[in-house]
Amino acid sequence: MAGFLPRIYDAAMKPLEKTRFEKIRAGLVRKAQGRVLEIGFGTGANFRYYTNAERVDAIEPNPDMSKQADKRIKKSRTPIDTYEAIAEELPFADNSFDTVVATLVFCTIPDPVKALEEIRRTSKPGAQILLFEHVKMDQPLMGKTQEALTPVWKKLCDGCHLNRDTLELVKQSGLDVQKVSSHYGGLFLTIECRNPS
After folding, report:
1. How far apart, in Å, are the Cα atoms of 44 and each of 29, 37, 176?
2. What domains are there in the chain, each with its CATH number?
3. Which of 21, 28, 152, 166 sits at 20 to 30 Å (Cα–Cα) from 184?
4. Distance between CA atoms of 24 and 57, rounded to whole angstroms?
5. 135: part of which helix (H) or strand (E)?
């Protein structure tokens, strides 16, 4: 069973790499500058898009996922260091990062409020926080469907919450939300924030 989820994840993402979905992800990650923290790098799908970063420190709690990322690290033009760590307990000093990136990961973090506190702690005042996440939809029928499916979905998909309202959690965290873009009928959002000074 070990290694099963990373292979399935990569297979599912492969058809999306040339699509609008992947263009959204790439466009967001390319905005990352300076010293970058990536939360939940998974199989390293973002690594090739770090064209403006000086270096990337990337965390991932699942060692099976991180093994899949090795070949992408070797191909990257940007120095990338990886750590087996959780978002709720980041192994970095205060005020370390110019940019924090998280794509398709906040749905699986067990304590997203604590993770956002850690992002604020480890990012510099004025640092940019770039998120691309699937969220609970505003459309009532779809939102109810997501609620009904979440208990089973969490078991099948590494703890993924289909019904998580990540935007509201970000707003409550004290981050300064500067831009929110909706994609695929509101199922996915890009959220661009700043860590207040």
Report:
1. 12, 13, 27
2. 4-194 (3.40.50.150)
3. 152
4. 22
5. none
